[in-house]
Amino acid sequence: MAPRLAPLGRRVLWFPTVGSTNDVAARLADEGEPEGTVIVADAQTAGRGRHGRVWVSPPAAGLYTSVILRPPAGALDLMTLAAGVALAEGLHAAGGLETGVKWPNDIYVHGRKVAGILAEGGASPAGAAHVVLGFGINLLPAALPPEVASRATALETELGRAVDRGLVLAECLAAIAARYGQLRRGERAAILDDWRRRARSTFGRGVEWNGPAGLCRGVAEDIDSGGALLVRTASGRERLLAGEVRWTS
Q1: 2 within 8 A of 9, measured Cβ to Cβ
Q2: Taking the CB of the first residue and of the last residue of the chain, which one, N or C, has fewer CB atoms within 10 A?
Q3: Could you read off the pLDDT of 102-134 as tens digits, one per residue?
Q4: Which fold, 2-198?
Q5: pLDDT exceeds 70 at position 193
Q6: In whole angstroms, what is the distance from residue 115 CA to residue 97 CA?
């Protein structure tokens, strides 16, 4: 497995409980921690997703992981999409589960979220740039609180059996390493094509977002070469790069 992980996993730090694995990784990256260091926690007390949403992270119920990366500037825009493809591939390799992706950072099974990604950039005081790539995977269904259970699922629910946490982590890291290698080599088309294939069920669905003039609505059609979501609206095609997008159908 070690050759498949490179450059990830040369150092793996495990914690029983942290506030957020992304926060731990960011602090270490600021201090000069090398690329590939992996932070894993059994529980998080302040796990988060995009826009500060809470990521429920009870003990032993999921995989809460962050990886320190130092990608070239040309790879930054596709980091989240590449990680989404990689997690889908890792979950399949570890247990045979087929999953889809939804822009920009969610992994879904039968319309319910099983994993999420949070990529955060930063730079050390010396000026060295880094990306902390965090991901959370729901393993046990009992861990999902009622307000989350209606829109989320877990690996054991979908597979109908217990899962090997170590195997899931190893396969996901190996898949991330492979896709990260593609990004570093400039093989963007392969990542975009594989992401589109896994997102087929989301194209044609309605989305809404808050634009400068107020609430906007449209239909998701595709992504472009920079990973932006392309949405058809009554006034033409919009290109969405960031911000809050709500899927309405």
Answers
A1: yes
A2: C
A3: 998 999 999 899 999 999 998 877 667 899 999
A4: BirA Bifunctional Protein; domain 2 (3.30.930)
A5: yes
A6: 13
Distance CA 240, CA 43 (A): 33
Strand 38-41 relative to strand 12-15, pairing: parallel
Closest to 5 in 3D by CA, of 177, 192, 208, 244: 177
Q: Which two tokens stand for residue 86?
A: 């990689």
- And the tokens for 51? 């826009």
- CA distances (Å), 178 to each of 20, 33, 117, 187, 244, in order? 25, 21, 17, 11, 29
pLDDT at residue 54, rounded to an integer: 59
Of the chain, the end-to-end C-alpha distance in Å amounts to: 40
- Name residue, tokens 């080599």: 185
Q: Where are the domains of the chain?
A: 2-198, 206-247
CATH architecture of 206-247: Roll (2.30)
DSSP per position, 175-242: HHHHHHHHHHTT-HHHHHHHHHHHTTTTTT-EEEEEETTEEEEEEEEEE-TTSPEEEEETTEEEEE-S
CB 68 within 8 A of CB 74: no
